[in-house]
Design goal:
The protein is an alpha/beta fold. It has a single domain, classed as 3-Layer(aba) Sandwich (Rossmann fold). Helix content is about 35%, strand content about 20%. The chain has a five-stranded parallel sheet, with helices on both faces. Strand 3, helix 3 and strand 4 form a beta-alpha-beta unit.
Length: about 120
């Protein structure tokens, strides 16, 4: 599973990416929505883990942009100040939500329950 992590807290997202890689996941990260759009355009990811609250473009808006580029991409939201009520599944996707602080174990547990898309690429 190839995972893209997007969070404006660079130290947090870089460390999380490294720890996921050590656990056998093909993980990549960026700290901006703009760079996330470029990465998803250029590469095939199975899952995008997005922070809800980021400067310039928040997780929900970024989700819409990324889903237009790769409709089968799955999403997981993380936030220290969001709530499940903010997550919309009106387009048929069932996105998951985790709150910060989050443990690597809880993240991996959640990743494992995300069903793969029929054709993620």
């Amino acid at each position: 599973m190839k995972i893209l992590l997007v969070d404006d807290e660079e130290d947090f997202v870089a460390t999380l990416c490294e720890r996921l890689s050590l656990r056998g996941y093909d993980a990549d990260w960026t700290s901006t929505g703009r760079e996330a759009v470029k990465k998803v355009t250029d590469e095939d990811y199975d899952l995008a883990i997005l922070d809800l609250k980021m400067p310039q473009i928040g997780g929900l808006e970024l989700r819409m942009k990324l889903a237009k580029i790769k409709p089968k991409l799955r999403f997981l939201f993380v936030s220290g100040h969001g709530s499940v009520d903010e997550i919309s599944a009106e387009d048929g996707n069932e996105d998951l939500f985790l709150t910060k602080p989050l443990t690597l174990e809880k993240l991996i547990e959640t990743i494992k329950i995300i069903p793969p898309a029929a054709d993620a690429h």
